[in-house]
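for ur thesis appendix - biotin synthase. copy paste whatever u need, i formatted it the way the template wanted (i think)
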Amino acid sequence: MGGVTATVRHDWTKDEIAEVYSLPFHELMYKASTVHRMYWDPSEVQQCTLLSIKTGGCTEDCSYCSQSTRHKTFVKPTPTMKVQEVLEAAKRAKDAGSTRFCMGAAWRELGNKKNAFNHILDMVKGVNGMGLEVCCTLGMLNAEQARQLKEAGLTAYNHNLDTSPEHYPNVITTRTYEDRLETIANVREAGISVCCGGILGLGEKEADRVGLLHVLATLPEHPESVPINALVAVEGTPLGNAAADEDSKADGIADVDAFDMARMIATARIVMPRTMVRLSAGRLSFSDAEQFLMFQAGANSIFNGDKLLTTDNPEFDQDMALFDKLGFVG
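the 3d part is after this line
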């Protein structure tokens, strides 16, 4: 890879992305930081809040997820929250500095859940009326559902690919990669911004990390935001149980360090320079200094608040102290 360029491309090859990913770490960080400053104010980091509006009871078999009915975890299913409860949570998030409010529901797809969907449309309208960006993650969507969400004022829809097409069947069998890409296409067609990323620590190889970025970077339009997660191993899930076995760490399960995260973020920043790269689940595993490394690599958004769906996360006060220390503006 030659000098630093920040051309927005959609024709990246896997070999080109692998070359970027494999750069000496100091060189990769320099290039990513340079590209980042071409498109973004490095002092600005968006704060987002993620709320589980319907927890547990999902029929999918995602091997990392605490909310699946197929796994014996600490999560107890709950009904969909009332609209007013959600709006009160959104107000608290806004008061704490969030500019985007994301609502997640644990199910495979909306399907024929008409009552729940109508409530969600009301939630979207209400949060939008507060002046917040509104995001949802509700599983698979058809084109008509995406259209209605857009009409209600939805800003973005999150639907992660998780990993490469090749490794995906080792992680999930109840929903295909093509299903996920179809939902992303429906969201894009409706005029909603796409939020789509993945998880490190699923037992993937470096080639799978490159493969995920290749899929994202060659979409007709790059995602508006790409969340990069580190697996939070939950006891009772297949990956959580495997992570408790020292031998499994040799297979890359839950074995993610700050350099892995920074390398993934930096590569994403270079190949998708206009995309917001969101430092997501797993931040509690990393020190302030390690998180700073990730921001230097090109991350410019976080999820704040003490919970990400069912996963622990730094509290608002911790993040505000970190922002003050680093000179960031939320």
